[in-house]
Design goal:
The complex is a heterodimer of chains A (about 300) and B (about 325). With about 300 residues, chain A is mostly helical. Chain A is about 70% helix and about 0% strand. Chain A is built from eleven helices and no strands. In chain A, about 45% of the residues are buried. An eight-stranded mixed β-sheet of chain B has the order 6-7-8-3-9-10-12-11, sandwiched between helices. The two termini of chain B are about 35 Å apart. The chains are: A mainly alpha (about 300), B alpha/beta (about 325). At the A-B interface, helix 8 and helix 9 of A face helix 2, strand 6 and helix 3 of B.
Chain lengths: ~300, ~325
């Protein structure tokens, strides 16, 4: 044991020990996730071209491995001659932004509703949970199309629609976990110490249900990316010319027979990112709360 | 005797529950009186399901009684508000049975103990820190333990942390709900001794709830015996544990393991199971199990009669008219 003890004293050693206990798919997934976040944050500095500016002379250029492709446009160009790699990089930033905002928003609302329902019980519980049922019965796509039809596609709309769909999962989980610990003696003891209900929820309930909620948040990252892409594909998501991965797939649809890479490249970006996120999310779920293992959220 | 610091009059608690599809009343506590005086310990004895824990919750103002009233220093508790309620919270502190449930796993011990101090008293940060160290040492732990998490402690140590928290705000009454039932025998004596020392040192009044007559005899000055939510016998601990008057108390006492395994069997074994509090028996609540029952027990509820040991018991056999 002295060797490990020595290794654990440095940060690098700790990372190596952590890395060694992961199996290879997880290592790949984690690496891809790191790349995704890095690209999303530093996109404007590493992207080779302006994702919005194309040159019509270079339109529909094939990717580098295709006949006629060149290193100038590694993944080729679209119908307006915009560099696809640059657009993928810019799309990563949009996906990450939507994820962060939606999960923060849906998480905050869902957690507040769920803990209140679980903690107070009775009529509060009944009314709030009916609200959750209502949210679960919303047809996502219809709602998005409706909002899009009313106010046109916008960044705000897409965030509202996805949050409306996803907050209910936090609410259900938060309610269940709150019910589990509401009868613990330390909650009663907090009451005999004169804490108000709000402070009991803040100081005792929330820290104890946080791990499960974090698991849900990670598992939802993939869902958010897919939903954003789907809505953008349908034209009610992020408005053009902003390069959302979903709208890139939609754009390429009419060229599927002649320039298949227009759909394929953003499609693969979605596939790999979501897979990586889900793998990491599942691993995190196993670690934090084994009871959630294999659960389809 | 001086005025009671904590008392209850005519306490009753009925839970409305759904049982087998029907709405029914569960009588957890019925018409209960008790008095606690400064520096004394009141033992509450009874088997599981007799309403001990409900009584505890009502006395801690965690639950409101359906009937009756809890009095704290002569003031009615259900109407306490603001400042008076805070004073009650400071002065009456509980220790619960299960130390694994009573300490928040995500809080450091120092924070757990400081919680009542920071919410009820207006103490400064440094004063609170000092007090946390003091009470940890008072229960035989170290001031440095305040930085650790509950899961680093054993069951006995955790219960001592719970006790440290309870005495942190310098309370006048400790509500002890089976504080040693979940402990190993070897730890029990230690915890009980700590409680006794603290009580002597601070002049605390204690309510000691237990199903175990032996520990009650060790801890308590006065005892009430509960059966199906009612008090059926009361008196000094000495009297109740040596010369009980009610057949139920006799049976309880006999059921405790005797030090001599070859000792003769108890002469008054209770018959059958404890009746459901959903449907309490008519007359004397104990008549369904009492080996000494006669006609009147089934119809007339016995009032408290003076018992030979100086206390009182609710049994028709003590009625002076019948005794003649």
């Amino acid at each position: 044991m002295p060797d490990t003890a020595m290794a654990l004293t440095s940060n690098a050693g700790r990372f190596r020990a952590f890395w060694r206990q992961l199996d290879w798919p997880l290592r790949v997934a984690l690496a891809m996730l790191v790349i995704f976040v890095f690209v999303a944050i530093f996109g404007p500095w590493i992207s080779p071209y302006d994702p919005l500016q194309g040159s019509l002379r270079a339109r529909l250029a094939p990717p580098v491995w295709q006949e006629g492709g060149s290193w100038a446009h590694i993944f080729g160009t679209d119908r307006l001659g915009r560099d696809i790699l640059s657009r993928i990089i810019a799309g990563a930033r949009i996906s990450l932004t939507v994820c962060v905002i939606v999960i923060a928003l849906a998480g905050a609302v869902g957690t507040a509703v769920g803990t209140a329902a679980g903690y107070f019980g009775g009529w509060t519980d009944r009314i709030l949970m009916r609200l959750v049922d209502l949210a679960l019965s919303f047809p996502v796509i219809l709602l998005a199309l409706l909002l899009g039809a009313i106010s046109g596609p916008s960044f705000t709309n897409i965030i509202i629609v996805i949050s409306l769909v996803l907050w209910s999962q936090y609410a259900r989980m938060a309610r269940g976990e709150t019910l589990k610990i509401r009868n613990e003696d330390y909650v009663d003891l907090a009451r005999t110490s004169g804490l108000s209900d709000f402070r009991i929820i803040w100081r005792h309930i929330l820290p104890n249900i946080a791990p499960s909620l974090i698991v849900i948040a990670t598992l939802q990252v993939g869902i958010v990316i897919v939903l954003e892409a789907s809505l953008s594909f349908l034209g009610v998501g992020v408005p053009p010319p902003a390069p959302s991965w979903g709208s890139m797939v939609a754009d390429g649809r009419s060229y599927i027979t002649s320039a298949w890479w227009l759909c394929m490249v953003p499609g693969l970006a979605i596939l790999f990112t979501v897979m990586a996120v889900n793998l990491v999310g599942d691993a995190l779920a196993d670690r934090i709360n084994p009871a959630l293992r294999g659960r389809n959220i | 005797m001086s005025e009671a610091i904590l008392s209850a009059t005519g306490l009753g608690r009925v839970f409305k529950i759904q049982h087998k599809g029907r709405k029914q009343d569960l009588h957890a506590v019925t018409d209960l009186d008790l008095e606690l005086h400064t520096g004394r310990t009141l033992g509450v004895v009874g088997e599981s399901g007799c309403g001990k824990t409900t009584l505890n919750r009502i006395l801690l103002l965690l639950d409101t009684p359906t009937t009756g009233e809890v009095w704290f220093k002569g003031k009615a508790c259900t109407t306490l508000s603001g400042e008076a309620r805070r004073e009650f919270r400071r002065a009456v502190q509980p220790v619960f049975q299960n130390p694994f449930s009573s300490l928040d796993p995500r809080m450091r011990v120092g924070k757990i103990i400081a919680e009542p101090l920071s919410t009820i008293t207006g103490m400064s940060r440094s004063d609170i820190e000092k007090r946390v160290g003091e009470v940890l040492e008072a229960v035989g732990l170290q001031a440095a333990d305040a930085r650790r998490f509950p899961n680093e402690f054993s069951g006995g140590q955790r219960q001592r942390i719970a006790i440290a928290r309870a005495i942190a705000s310098k309370p006048e009454v400790l509500m002890l709900d089976e504080p040693v039932s979940s402990q190993d025998i070897s730890i029990r004596a230690q915890i009980l001794n700590i409680l006794k020392d603290l009580q002597a040192e601070y002049g605390l009044g204690c309510v000691f709830i237990s199903h175990d007559l032996a520990t009650v005899r060790f801890m308590a000055d006065d005892v009430i015996v509960m059966y199906l939510g009612r008090v059926i016998e009361k008196g000094t601990a000495q009297a109740i544990c040596s010369t009980p008057a009610h057949p139920y108390t006799k049976a309880l006492l006999a059921a405790a393991l005797p030090p001599d395994p070859d000792a003769p069997r108890p002469e008054l074994p209770p018959q059958g199971e404890i009746p459901s509090p959903l449907d309490p028996p008519s007359g004397c609540p104990y008549h369904t199990r009492c080996p000494l029952k006669f006609d009147r027990c089934e119809t007339v509820r016995p009032p408290m009669f003076a018992a030979p040991h100086g206390g009182a018991a609710a049994c028709h056999l003590l009625d002076p008219e019948i005794a003649q």
